[in-house]
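We modelled the chain as a single entity of 536 amino acids. Its sequence is:
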Amino acid sequence: MSRPREQASASGPMPADGNDREPVPGLAVVVMAAGLGKRMQSKDAKVLHPVAGRPMVLYSVDLALRLAGHRIAVIVGHQADRVRQVIKDATAGGGSPVPVSIVEQRELLGTGHAVLQSRPLFAGSGRSAPALYLILNGDTPLLREETLRELLRVHRDEKAAVTVLTARLDDAAGYGRVVRQPSAENRVSRIVEDRDADADEKAIREINVGTYAVDGEFLFAALDTLQPGNAQGEYYLTDIVQTAVEQGRRVAAVLLDHPDEGLGVNTRRQLAEAEQVIRRRIRHRWLDAGVRMIDPASTWIDAGVTIGRDSVLYPNVMLEGTTTIGEDCVVRSGTRITDCVVGNRVEILDHCVFRDSRIEDEATLGPFTHLRPNVLVRKGAKVGNFVEMKKAELGEGSKANHLSYLGDTKIGKGVNIGAGTITCNYDGVRKAETVIGDGVFIGSDTQLIAPVTVGAGSVIAAGTTVTENVPTDSLVIARVPQVTRPGWAAKRRALQAAGTAGGSLPPGSKLTSPKADKASSRPRKPNAKPSKGRSR
């Protein structure tokens, strides 16, 4: 597969472009996704490999949904349960029946046999049989809706039994060749697989893409006549072309302007090339929709991402999964956001990592902020550098600006979280929750030993370890008493200067008087006031 050319829009949630069209009446779609994909050198089924964050097969399923609306069959085989679950997860929702049916090909006997497995679905549905079938592969993520609509238009205009999507390559090795009749009309007569082609046929540069429009009455009748008379001993779908010719039916073809659009992904190299094309399409669509990218080439946006107008993405930003970015947001360099919802006018500074979290309007985060799953940052809140949050809510207008861990925590409005604060949520066996009320001030270097609740309006002094619930409007101080010895440092320096080489003190020298030693070692009574010799 040569380097793919730039094409139009990618599949997935994208801004409207004014070209939305209605499903084609009478159309059913069959997506073939049963193959092994041996050349991928992977333990995973080929169609499950992601392109721009989405399993490859979903690009074909999305095209089917847009073109047919319902009456869609996906043929699965290798790792059928995994492929089935991916499709089910992607098409679930909305409360209505999913219009995609999964049909398993239990014996992998070729592409014709695969399509034949869908007959009970369409013939036994209790409705009129489809007038037209569109057959897609699950490994063609670059195929565009516009191309398929053109294929269907040509099929109807030509009144064909079969219409084939083709491409012309400089090197056609490995692909099925399109053999045309030696006549003025130059119509397609048959398709020959590479393994079965003779020398003359291998010299043909026009190849079969593997996408077909087939007359509804013709398809299954033709499939019933297939025989495995080929090098692979399989039932080839391509043989229905020769069947149509033998019956005097018309076979049409649509030649792709950009051949790479229709080629299947069979190797890791082709997967990487397809990824580049899809990501360029996505970037161009969002640029056209009013999103600013300082360096588009270094900005990675998955197919399922949505971005609001006038948002700005700096270099090396990664937006993954189903992330939604609101309007007028700024996302600075080195940030990775996965499956998050970000409101409007949010500023995200450099080198942040967010996953499965929600950020409301006008919040500020970063640099170096880490949001683990199930974090909620309320409107106008601030999360600063080297703050990690997990399963936590930071209330409206609250701030956690520095060097803190907030896990399994619910924080109210207008709260200040001082630098170095830790919610100690795990005792080695189970997690526990910390609740901090509105208007609380948490001093620096505070540890909150969960489960614990701090009442609204309370002040927790710096360096405190909170082990008990704190009533509303309370002051909590819990730390080792300070000891101050005036003149100690000067005396130490003098003794060091008079000492032996290396700065050690002379034998028997002490930096404190016996009285001071005795005072510093005397047990203090609870809540005792500092002596006059010690500073507050």
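As a brief sanity check on the tokenised model: Residues 357 and 438 are 22 Å apart (CA to CA). The chain has eleven helices and 37 strands.
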